[in-house]
Specification:
The complex is a heterodimer of chains A (486) and B (535). With 486 residues, chain A is mainly alpha-helical. Chain A has one domain. Chain A has 20 helices and 2 strands. In chain A, strand 1 and strand 2 form a beta hairpin. In chain A, helix 6 packs antiparallel against helix 7. Chain B has 2 domains: 502 residues, no CATH class; 32 residues, no CATH class. The relative contact order of chain B is 0.10. Chain B is mostly helical. Classes of the chains: A mainly alpha (486), B mainly alpha (535). Chains A and B meet through helix 8, helix 14, helix 17, helix 18 and helix 20 of A and strand 1, helix 6, helix 7 and helix 8 of B.
Chain lengths: 486, 535
């Protein structure tokens, strides 16, 4: 016993959890600060959160090419984790930028909102750096519980309540699956450490088809795929995105999704790498289903938040193609794609935040008729984000898809790539339709309620610049993603 | 300076677009003048290319520029690699030449949101020039897709009554084809990498030397050919064209007809045919049949149109069928004729769309039945219209004759003899629909009172048409100016297609799962192979 404690103590390496630690400290400080500041003003909290994220980014950067391991192999702050940390920090920062004016408009200027976003980011970072199933589970819970609250944050709105409750019930259920999966895998391999599972299965190759292990793998996948919103575990997405505060929908579609991808890829490629042939077929089918369902249902949507929700399902399907490829190109393409998707999707959401009225009932296709003439700059920013979501060059969405499909083709999955690009073609229709309303229809409203709030405008501009930079010179970032592979 | 002439020419309009965006939006005249100056400067920049005698002797790429662009370790290498030979030379010049003319044509036609229109025109010019000079398939694809965006907005915002349908149809048709081509491009790249071929980015000249298995060529060729066939457009994927042409504003129609359709035929000649020569041979009769169907079908449908613009649009289907037939003849005279006909079609059909624009601006209708007897009222217009009509039909001494004659001659000398016989009826039919249309619009009694006070062409309008008329006669009387510079390049392309230029051994493919271990950068997936996977 004493010996074990000693081993654990030797393994304490705070540098390995430093980003989470720093952000947690800031979170707690912000929580205290909220208690002392009068209600009604939250700009200070937004500013404080941005500083906190900046500090976390700096701390994360210290670990680039300087990997930190600790806590008996439970945590690894390697390049992979650092790359994902930057995605989470970016997603959180951009969402916070657009939140301040939004919360005031909707009548919920509450500082705890920011604390919850930051806590959710802490959880995401733990997931990305977790190398033990328990750490990953812990991160997932920290991230999700904060999100459950955030989804239902507008407590006087039925829609938001529904979103929170739905997300909570289904999320709790799926976490149960995840935990059960961990338990079954533990039962077969005797460890929860991802690397140990990997080496154990590699040495005992006959276990790979063990029904308990396969069952555990499927349950584990269910838990992760629920968070990523892969068909058939996508049902919650449209309702939650529609009901949740718009910046939270933006954040959920980028940060937590990337976190689930980070953990999913680490567990499946390292821990269950020996079972590749078992899970790759399953993921192939799910990727195809996800792309098809997401894109085809998006066609029917008239509410833009719901449309973006279905589009985010479809995009998760594209990203899954990279994991199916399971080669270095494909996996680093997933990293790149997560970053690209964060930028283009949050950019699109920030325009919705700017263009919405109180209650956001005007965020429909019809509500955007003639937007391009009344608000030309915002419309151009929106258009660039939409072209990027379509995958038209020169944009981050194009290069991201290019890398993903390149990975798939390099691994020999020609049909998967063909299905993927045909799905992109389907998606053209509903993205183009937004532009049809914005530019090809006469304005019915003056859009005089639209104000260029500095935070949200900055968020849109940063996103669009990022989208174009990643679209024209993606080489440097893709090289980083390549370097970030475990 | 001269070594960067292509980049300068391509990106100058983009720079111009930024200037336009900074100008105040209310001043339409200023915006139009600035755009005109920018396009004229671009034309001047491109002129030395036309005067360079090097194209007479060498079919290789000239004015090449090369710079590494995207480089991700051993994953990808994309380069900024551009250059022109005698084939792209004339298409580049056609583009820079037609742009100032289209800008001039917008003087009265475009009055809403001039700033947006001009910015899109300049963006479109950059994209089109970029596509013609790209020697890297990835770069080509970027420009190819980029072209869609400005044209989509030009049709959708400034188009006619049915513009939304036309714009969306145009975008989706073209994008579907090009997405499949993208898969083929990536596949080709990895094939080159995995077979240990010379890989310098997505360089098309290196890909020419790949020895692809015929079965593989078949699929890749289909992906490329489908994409380009939509753009040409070949029967039966032509249906976007009448809609887009009819609904687009005059400037948009002119650019579509004069330049963008040539992307498809150029794509065949530069990419689809030389990259996959075996597959080309396999599909040749089918493609030639589709071309001939396009020729006859386009002409017959054109004959029955009530709308002048739609008639010209369907005549494009017919004319582009000739171009394709010339390319598939696979001999020097046919291919040269096809390239010349690309230029001819750009000039003649561009001029026809301008003419339709002139009468539309006066009467706000394009229905043939609304007109009649205009020749008395508008004598200058009647002369110019007549010349252009005859040029489109292919009257000797005018440009259309030379192109069509060479194409038919080439096709007749090749294996496509009987196709050429059927295609010849297209020449007759084109005389029928064009002259019949001309007769109904220009001759007869001036009985519609709305036509009584029509003004003849203004000086600006004559200035627009004059340069086109010059080339209609020049190419018709002395086509050698153009032919002599494309000949070496055509021979080069033909030797590529006939396979003389490549080695004859097949290298095995390394894409299947069984060979994954041997391929570079692939994760091992079995117990032995997961050396890459540890933390």
């Amino acid at each position: 016993m004493e010996n074990m404690v000693q081993t654990a103590m030797q393994n304490v390496n705070f540098a390995a959890i430093m980003p989470s630690l720093v952000l947690t400290c800031f979170c707690l400080a912000l929580l205290l600060l909220n208690a002392f500041v009068k209600r009604g003003s939250t700009s200070y909290a937004a500013f404080f959160s941005l500083v906190a994220l900046g500090a976390t980014a700096c701390v994360s950067y210290l670990a680039w090419d300087n990997p930190q391991f600790g806590f008996a192999g439970q945590v690894a702050l390697d390049n992979y984790a650092v790359f994902f940390n930057f995605i989470f920090i970016l997603a959180a920062a951009l969402s916070i930028l657009m939140s301040d004016a939004y919360l005031k408009r909707e009548g919920y200027p509450v500082g705890e909102y920011y604390t919850l976003i930051l806590f959710s980011t802490v959880g995401a970072m733990l997931m990305a750096s977790g190398t033990d199933m328990m750490t990953i589970f812990l991160g997932l819970e920290v991230m999700s519980i904060a999100l459950y609250v955030l989804a239902g944050f507008f407590r006087r709105q039925l829609r938001s309540n529904e979103a929170g409750l739905k997300y909570f019930l289904l999320g709790a259920f799926s976490t149960g699956f995840l935990l059960y999966g961990i338990a079954l895998i533990y039962g077969v391999t005797g460890t929860t450490n991802v690397a140990d599972i990997g080496s154990y299965l590699a040495m005992n190759h006959h276990l790979v088809s063990d029904p308990i292990l396969v069952g555990g793998m499927i349950l584990l996948a269910t838990g992760f795929l629920f968070k990523i919103a892969i068909v058939p575990f996508h049902m919650w997405t449209p309702d939650v995105y529609e009901g949740a505060p718009t910046p939270i929908a933006a954040f959920m579609s980028a940060g937590p999704k990337a976190a689930a991808f980070a953990a999913f890829m680490r567990v499946f490629l390292i821990g269950l790498g020996s079972m590749h042939s078992t899970w790759v077929g399953m993921l192939w089918v799910l990727a195809v289903l996800t792309m098809i369902v997401g894109n085809f249902i998006a066609i029917k949507q008239t509410n833009l938040k719901r449309m973006l929700a279905y589009s985010s399902i479809a995009h998760a399907g594209y990203a899954l193609v990279g994991l199916v490829a399971s080669n270095a190109v494909g996996v680093s393409a997933v990293l790149f794609y997560m970053l690209a998707y964060t930028l283009m999707n949050i950019g699109a959401f920030s325009i919705l935040v700017l263009a919405g009225k109180v209650g956001e009932d005007n965020l429909t296709l019809q509500g955007f008729a003639g937007f391009g003439y009344k608000r030309p700059v915002l419309a151009v920013l929106f258009t660039i984000c939409l072209f990027s979501l379509m995958g038209i060059p020169p944009s981050a969405g194009f290069t991201g898809k290019f890398f993903i499909f390149a990975g798939a083709l390099n691994a020999g999955y020609v049909w998967l790539a063909v299905i993927g690009v045909l799905n992109s073609a389907v998606s053209l229709y509903y993205y183009l339709r937004v532009m049809v309303y914005m530019y090809f229809r006469s304005p019915e409203e003056e859009f005089d309620w639209v104000q260029l709030k500095p935070g949200a405008t900055l968020c849109a501009v940063i996103s669009v610049v990022g989208v174009l930079v990643l679209g024209i010179v993606p080489g440097a970032v893709m090289a980083l993603a390549r370097h970030a592979l475990f | 300076m001269s070594e960067h002439i292509l980049s300068l020419m391509t990106f100058f309009p983009l720079l111009g677009m930024l200037i336009i965006l900074m100008l105040p939006g209310g001043k339409g005249g200023l915006l139009k003048c600035t755009t005109l100056v920018i396009t004229l400067i671009t034309f001047v920049i491109s002129l030395p290319l036309a005067l360079d005698p090097v194209f007479k002797t060498s079919g290789a790429m000239h004015y090449t520029e090369f710079a590494p662009w995207i480089s991700v370790g051993d994953y990808f290498q994309m380069n900024y690699s551009v250059g022109i030979d005698g084939i792209s030379l004339w298409l580049v010049l056609l583009t820079t030449f037609i742009m100032p003319i289209t800008v001039l044509s917008t003087w009265q036609a475009v009055d809403k949101n001039v700033k947006g229109f001009m910015a899109l025109m300049l963006l479109l010019e950059t994209a089109m020039l970029g596509a013609f000079i790209s020697l890297d398939l990835f770069l080509f694809y970027i420009f190819w897709e980029l072209m869609l965006i400005p044209m989509y907005f030009m049709i959708g915002i400034w188009g006619g009554a049915n513009r939304i349908y036309a714009a969306v149809k145009f975008f989706i048709y073209t994008a579907v084809g090009s997405l499949l081509m993208l898969v083929a491009i990536i596949y080709l790249y990895y094939y080159a990498v995995n077979t240990g071929g010379v890989v310098n980015g997505f360089s098309v000249t290196d890909f020419y030397n790949l020895n692809l298995h015929p079965e593989l060529q078949k699929w890749l060729f289909l992906a490329f050919a489908f994409s380009f066939a939509i753009k040409v457009p070949m029967f039966p994927v032509h249906t976007w064209l009448p809609d887009a042409h009819t609904e687009a504003p005059t400037a948009g129609s002119v650019i579509l007809a004069a330049v963008m359709l040539k992307m498809g035929t150029y794509g065949y000649l530069r990419f689809a045919m030389p990259l996959f020569p075996d597959a080309l041979q396999q599909f040749l009769p089918w493609l030639a049949a589709l071309s001939v169907i396009g020729i006859v079908y386009g002409a017959l449908v054109a004959m029955m149109q009530k709308d002048v613009k739609k008639l010209v649009a369907y005549s494009s289907v017919s004319h582009l069928g000739f171009v394709m037939l010339g390319l598939f003849a696979l001999n020097n005279i046919g291919v040269s004729g096809a390239i010349l006909q690309m230029v001819n079609h750009g000039i003649s059909t561009g001029a026809l769309f301008l003419i339709v624009g002139f009468i539309y601006e006066r009467r706000h209708t394009r229905l043939i039945s609304e007109f009649g007897g205009l020749s008395k009222q508008m004598p200058v217009f009647a002369v110019i219209f007549m010349i252009v009509t005859l040029s489109s039909i292919g009257l000797p001494a005018l440009n259309g004759f030379v192109g069509e004659f060479m194409i038919l001659l080439g096709a007749f000398e090749s294996e496509l003899r009987w196709f050429a016989v059927v295609a010849t009826t297209g020449v007759v039919l084109s005389a029928v629909y064009m002259l019949w249309m001309y007769q109904r619009v220009m001759f007869g009694k001036l009985d519609n009172p709305k036509n009584q006070n029509l003004k003849d062409l203004s000086v600006r309008e004559i200035c627009i048409m004059l340069p086109l008329l010059v080339f209609i006669f020049w190419i018709g009387v002395y086509p050698n100016t153009f032919l002599e510079k494309m000949e070496p390049a055509v021979n080069q392309a033909l030797s590529q297609i006939s396979g003389e230029a490549r080695a004859q051994t097949y290298i095995p493919v390394c894409t299947d799962a069984e060979q994954q271990g041997k391929c570079p950068h692939t994760y091992g997936v079995d117990a032995q192979g997961d050396a890459d996977l540890h933390l």
